[in-house]
């Protein structure tokens, strides 16, 4: 059995007293995670409803901190929220007759029969209940010897979400995103050749849909009728004083405005100037149940709309004299008859006319029956029949709802900016469109960036089972394939509906946030999920970052943008690529910005998010400094064919002797002086050096005699000449004799000047090209020497100007700032983000 917190001062939150029993529920009136400051919980009213199935008198009392006893009578006017998810409450049931058997039942198996007898008298029943993640209305039924005698319903509130702004919005966004994906599926699969702008189905399509779902639709209406939504409204009537049942301050105000109805009395009355007065009439105030609520008006309006559409379809069949079976008209008449009967003879007869449509209603999203009626109405309205286990989930399980919402919201953010190419979340069979979103089953959506042509996927519940140790099952994985790399960069976004608000946690990590064990799980994911290289025996890490998504209502504060220190788990994202991000319908800016960063950055920046083994950087730094590619200019146009046919290249020794032992590749440069056709200018061919010979120039027999036959030359033999998929174009520049570059620059370069950049300069160029590919270089001379460096790199609305060997200046029409080249190694993400922001600001100001 669950236990309550030791040392906590429990209060009686609800007491029900009847002729047969007394039931009380004790607990803390304020949730530890939600004291009214974290969310707008104090602005919400909670309601208790009770029903007696036998003839007995009863009284309901609720918690009131202002009352001396801590309780006050409940008159259905609402109360502050007292019951929360994931909280223990003590239930005590005291019965008058210990010989009878009592059971407190509930639909939730965790709460059903949680209260059991204690002691020998048989008159005391106790138990501790916890609603776990089930929120909303929760109904208990008390049975005596197997017969229902009483029921009560309380409202359970979320402790980590704003009930109105976040919880309802999550429900709405989940439904909306499912419909959006389904319509996108239909559009791409069936309607690509004939897309129409109609938002509503035709009468025939409408009839087909309603015929298939009318039984379920009407059953939902019956469930609504069993427990319709209502409200308590004041009812005032002017009566004779002896007939008044209840007076209050409103009665006194009413009398003060009507002194003319006062008459003198020789007996008791209201004393005024030594005379007694009594009113001839008085205002009698009382409260009544009313079914005239917005939700019931909306429900009535839905039924009237459906009836009207059925009537129009029936008339169309008659007017066009179509050969329709008689049972179709009979079926229409039956449906219309049931709808009109429900409108005229149920509680809806007391509902008024709908005068406006509101954007939100928790009852329509959560209320028993209301939710299903609304779902079926949307199907009929949009011409879409969604069938799936997804719609059968208990929306009261807020943790599961949050997990689904996180996956769908991530995709919604991406779909607004990128092209959705593949979606296995939606499929089609004979029963209709199937939504395959279900915990434990993998779902995947694939996107393409139209600007970079890069592809990426978001997968839900992907299982990693074939691992050296233990299988892992993260919630959401973003997998990105960068155009400049064969590596697939994967990032985990794990939904955790958990929040630690303890003082110790805040002192240690600066802000409230996800529990420590959820962060440890991110470390486990990154270390445990590895990939085996097919042709090697070693493993490589597949996960470049892992992040907890959790409910927090102030992302700016969490990030330290509203004063105070940021959470350590926010800072750790940029430090070690593990941490946490707030994620709610009203708090999605940080996640959106982070997704944009991940998709915009190059493979180099993505790689730097990973934590590398000590010594790795020195190892790669040594390799990057090696100039192992010879850029060999051709002295004559016919030399190209000679080199290609003989798998060779030659040049004089004094031009290459300092790098000779380091060279691994040769690239042939075709200059504009030797090749007049622009389509033939640049670097088209390269080859790997197999061997080389140092011999006098005259001994190279494949070529004609030279002016210096005895001078030493180098004859390179290559394995084979390979043609570049995309040639390196001159862009107005070429080499001053043989030049050297490294393999990294050679693979990345699009134009010849780029072969003379350093690693840091190429890194800067790559990142900026992801935004705008048009880059123009300026070097001191047209024929670039080995010791020359660029002076300017020009993009539209942006100039990169070299200040000296260590610094460069970023210039726009509205701003300029100086940076250090060396910072592009240690602080690349920060520097590059600043430059991009300066650039974007300059462009927006110009507009």
TrEMBL record:
InterPro entries: DUF2357, PDDEXK_7. Keywords: Coiled coil. Residues 310-338 form a coiled coil. Residues 126-377 form the DUF2357 domain. Pfam families: DUF2357 (PF09823), PDDEXK_7 (PF04411). It comes from the Bacteria. This is DUF2357 domain-containing protein.
């Amino acid at each position: 059995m669950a236990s309550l917190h030791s040392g906590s001062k429990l209060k009686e939150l609800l007491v029900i007293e009847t002729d047969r029993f007394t039931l009380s529920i004790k607990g803390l009136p304020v949730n530890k995670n939600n004291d009214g400051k974290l969310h707008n919980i104090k602005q919400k009213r909670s309601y208790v409803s009770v029903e007696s199935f036998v003839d007995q008198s009863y009284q309901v009392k609720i918690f009131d901190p202002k009352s001396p006893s801590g309780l006050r009578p409940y008159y259905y006017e609402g109360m502050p929220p007292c019951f929360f998810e994931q909280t223990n409450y003590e239930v005590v049931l005291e019965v008058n007759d210990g010989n009878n058997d009592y059971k407190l039942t509930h639909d939730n198996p965790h709460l059903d029969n949680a209260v059991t007898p204690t002691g020998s008298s048989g008159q005391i029943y106790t138990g501790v209940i916890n609603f776990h993640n089930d929120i909303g209305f929760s109904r208990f039924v008390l049975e005596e010897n197997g017969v229902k005698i009483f029921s009560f319903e309380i409202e359970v509130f979320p402790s980590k979400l704003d009930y109105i702004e976040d919880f309802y919005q999550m429900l709405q966004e989940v439904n909306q995103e499912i419909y959006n994906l389904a319509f996108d599926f239909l559009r791409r699969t069936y309607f690509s050749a004939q897309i129409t702008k109609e938002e509503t189905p035709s009468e025939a399509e409408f009839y087909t849909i309603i015929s298939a779902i009318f039984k379920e639709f009407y059953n939902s209406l019956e469930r609504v009728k069993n427990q319709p939504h209502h409200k308590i409204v004041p009812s005032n009537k002017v009566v004779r004083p002896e007939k008044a049942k209840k007076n209050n301050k409103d009665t006194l105000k009413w009398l003060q405005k009507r002194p003319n109805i006062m008459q003198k009395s020789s007996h008791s009355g209201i004393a005024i100037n030594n005379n007694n007065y009594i009113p001839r009439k008085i205002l009698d105030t009382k409260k009544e149940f009313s079914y005239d609520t917005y939700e019931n008006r909306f429900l009535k309006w839905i039924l009237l709309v459906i009836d009207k559409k059925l009537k129009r379809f029936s008339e169309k069949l008659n007017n066009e004299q179509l050969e329709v079976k008689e049972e179709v008209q009979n079926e229409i008449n039956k449906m219309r008859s049931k709808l009109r009967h429900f409108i005229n003879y149920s509680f809806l007869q007391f509902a008024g006319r709908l005068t406006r449509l509101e954007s939100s209603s928790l009852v329509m999203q959560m209320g028993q029956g209301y939710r299903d009626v609304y779902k079926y109405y949307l199907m009929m309205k949009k011409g879409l029949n969604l069938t799936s286990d997804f719609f059968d989930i208990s929306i009261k399980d807020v943790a599961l709802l949050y997990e689904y919402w996180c996956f769908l919201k991530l995709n919604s953010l991406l779909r607004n900016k990128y092209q959705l190419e593949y979606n296995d979340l939606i499929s089609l069979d004979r029963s209709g469109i199937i939504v395959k979103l279900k915990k434990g089953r993998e779902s995947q959506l694939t996107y393409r960036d139209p600007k970079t042509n890069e592809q990426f996927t978001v997968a839900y519940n992907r299982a990693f089972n074939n691992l050296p140790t233990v299988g892992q099952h993260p919630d959401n994985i973003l997998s990105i394939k960068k155009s400049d790399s064969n590596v697939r960069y994967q990032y985990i976004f794990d939904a955790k509906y958990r929040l630690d608000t303890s003082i110790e946690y805040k002192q240690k990590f600066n802000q409230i946030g996800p529990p420590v064990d959820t962060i440890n799980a991110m470390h486990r994911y990154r270390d445990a999920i590895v990939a085996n290289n097919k042709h090697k025996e070693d493993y490589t890490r597949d996960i470049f970052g892992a992040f907890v998504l959790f409910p927090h209502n102030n992302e700016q504060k969490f990030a330290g943008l509203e004063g105070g220190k940021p959470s350590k788990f926010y800072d750790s994202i940029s430090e070690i690529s593990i941490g946490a991000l707030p994620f709610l319908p009203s708090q999605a800016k940080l996640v959106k910005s982070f997704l944009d960063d991940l998709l915009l950055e190059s493979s180099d920046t993505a790689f730097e998010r990973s934590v590398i083994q000590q010594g790795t950087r020195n190892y790669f730094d040594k390799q990057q400094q090696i100039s192992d590619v010879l850029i060999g200019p051709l002295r004559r146009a016919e030399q190209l064919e000679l080199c290609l046919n003989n798998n060779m290249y030659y040049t004089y020794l004094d031009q290459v002797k300092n790098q000779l032992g380091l060279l691994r590749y040769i690239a042939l440069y075709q200059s504009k002086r030797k090749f007049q056709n622009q389509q033939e200018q640049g670097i088209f061919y390269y080859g790997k050096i197999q061997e080389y010979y140092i011999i006098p120039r005259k001994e190279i027999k494949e070529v004609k005699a030279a002016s210096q036959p005895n001078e030493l030359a180098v004859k390179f033999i290559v394995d084979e000449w390979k043609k570049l998929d995309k040639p390196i174009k001159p862009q107005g520049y070429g080499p001053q004799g043989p030049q050297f570059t490294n393999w990294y620059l050679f693979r990345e370069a699009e134009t010849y000047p780029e072969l003379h950049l350093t690693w840091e300069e190429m890194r800067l160029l790559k990142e900026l090209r992801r935004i705008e590919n048009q880059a123009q270089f300026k070097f001191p001379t047209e024929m670039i020497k080995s010791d020359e460096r660029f002076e300017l790199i020009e993009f539209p609305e942006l100039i990169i100007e070299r200040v000296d060997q260590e610094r460069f200046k970023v210039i726009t029409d509205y701003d300029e700032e100086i940076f250090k080249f060396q910072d592009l190694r240690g602080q690349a993400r920060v520097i590059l983000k600043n430059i991009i922001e300066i650039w974007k600001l300059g462009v927006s100001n110009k507009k």
